[in-house]
Amino acid sequence: MSRIVEVTTERMSVPLHTPFVTALRRTETTDTVLVRVTDSDGVTGWGEAPQVWQVTGESLAGAEACVAGPLAAAVTGTDADDLAATCRAVAGAVAGNHGAKGAVDVALHDVAARRRGVSLPVLLGSTTLRVATDVTLAAGDADALAETARTRTAEGFGVLKLKVGTDAATDAARVAAVRDAVGPDVGIRLDANQGWTPREAVRVISALEDKGLGVELVEQPVAAADLDGLAWVTARVDTPVMADESVYGLRDLVAVIHRRAADLVNVKLAKCGGLSTGRTLLDLARAHEMGTAVGSMMETHVGLGAAASLAAACGTSVVADLDAAWWARESPYLGGLRYDGATVVLPDAPGLGIEGLA
Ligand SMILES: [Mg+2]
A Gene Ontology molecular-function term (predicted)? Predict the structure, then answer.
């Protein structure tokens, strides 16, 4: 029997080709903790815990401490092929720390897939290696957004995600500028990142509807904890509303379903802490006629490979939200996924197909 013998962490700071700007921050690097799990046969699996202070409250230092401490203790000596047992041990080892748990969970899946000689999508039950993604436009004024929107559609992206919620008075004008720039056939979705009050959300979304701007969906219009507010908005607009920061794990999704608080859910490994919980979230949403997407934090090709594998295996009702690694100036890894226009292309190789650091 092969046992897990080593769990290591390494900080990475990956330069971006374009600054990533949101209402909350401007960054020119993706900062993350790379996790490697090795078994007694020398097979190494990769995972990552991204820096997400503003979303989940988790930090690189906290992720390192969690992985090196309780999570390493929980998996060291366990059977590398018993993925169900090892991942359960990770999930139950600590409260919170979803990013750290997600990183170890993914690394264990990568080990198991490599041991079986199959890609991660195949381990999860699919042979699909291509997943379409949207692309986020960095925050800016209307003219800058229109210019970037034209550039991204020329690069092949068919769905643009705009960050709104910073200024309810001008949000509609910026969306209109982007629609003008790209014409009627490009998908436009909005992410308010909790930036509106429920009344502001209804006012802005209704204005967008009145202008006929063809917004596909609006993500997280109000504060994460305000499920009543989220339900109030969802009941008053025609545009589909997607829960992101309101849904980490299964209990959160059950609460959203009970209140009919959203029409769709964005599933992310750094929120739900693992691939099997991610799959269950997607199944649960589907069973209640909710729409689904798989997304990510600002992560590199390791975390994105795992998220894209989940999307490939389970499918999503709308185009996935998996552009984060596209922002990297170059991949810091040998092997792993690549982007072909708006498509994430997963390698036809064991596990995540990561062969080492570039
Ligand atoms: Mg979001």
Answer: racemase and epimerase activity
101 is catalytic: no
Q: Are 214 and 239 in contact (CB under 8 A)?
A: no
Q: Which pLDDT belongs to residue 303?
A: 98
Residue 8 alpha carbon to ligand 1 centre in Å: 30
Distance 193 CA to ligand 1 centre (A): 6
Q: Which CATH class is domain 4-116?
A: alpha beta
The Å distance, Cα 169 to ligand 1 centre, comes to 21
Is the pTM higher than 0.85? The answer reads yes
Percent of the chain residues topping a pLDDT of 70: 100
Measure 39 CA to ligand 1 centroid, in angstroms.
Answer: 35
163 is catalytic: yes
> What is the percent of the chain with per-residue pLDDT over 90, rounded to a whole number?
93
Question: 123-357 has which fold?
Answer: TIM Barrel (3.20.20)
pLDDT at res. 52:
85
- Catalytic residue chosen out of the listed positions 101, 161, 163, 271: 163
Domain ranges of the chain: 4-116, 123-357
Centre of ligand 1 to C-alpha 216, Å, is: 14
Q: Residue 240: pLDDT above 80?
A: yes
pLDDT at 53 over 90: no
The whole-chain average pLDDT of the chain stands at 96
